[in-house]
Protein: Endoplasmic reticulum lectin
Organism: Myiagra hebetior
Amino acid sequence: APQHQAEDVVTVASRFKQRYECRLPPAARPVCSRWGPGGDRGVPPASPGASPAPSLTRGLRGTPPAPSLTRGLRSCQTKDWWTYEFCYGRHIQQYHLEESEIKGDILVLGYYQSAFDWDDETAKASKQHQLRRYHSQSYVNGSRCDLTGRAREAEVRFLCEEGAGDYIARVDEPQSCSYVLTVHTTRICHHPFLRPSPGLAPQPIRCQPALSPAQYVQYVRAQVSDTKRKVEEISEELRSLDTRLWSERDSEPPSQSAE
């Protein structure tokens, strides 16, 4: 094996402890460039006027206030039996509709409490918002939950989707009476922190055994021997099938001609 390994080659091992050298495609090679002093290339600096909303601009430093994300944002989504109504900065409700009329009780999943603070170093430490590129709000003190005895609560996550308008993409309940609403909106897509990263086409990774010349010759011979064995097995199966077909044909009684 070579003493010095190229930067685009990594060594992996199979479950049988056989080592392989795999060459990475250009898109997967590490890049160590930066925007400038103190600026990581992975998080480009915010440009002036590129703030999605006042609640976001407090944390996206260097960005002036922008028109509110919330103006007119009201969304409803029906999922199975329930319809979910989200009024930004106010409340989230859940109810059942029949022929456009509400039937039964209206459950409040929470009233607006706060938004994710992008200036809070403790909050940003998890990196979840930056890695998954969403902004969030907390809604609390909803209707009492019969299962837990506590008030219902919800988290609303805003994700960028170009040309989609505003709509509730999904509603999850990871815990009883604790909800996560995912809202897709175009109103935050102009900010680099929240814009989806460009998709990359799959690239092949080619691997070969990390063997010495003598080991590699032995490996090739083993592969050839295994191929010959498989060919012989297939040939034997074909001969057996051919013999069985002829045997069945000979055992058939002759057809009787019509009188």
Notes: Residues 30-68 have pLDDT under 50 and may be disordered. Helices lie at 54-57, 121-124, 128-132, 213-251. The longest helix spans residues 213-251. The longest strand covers residues 101-115.
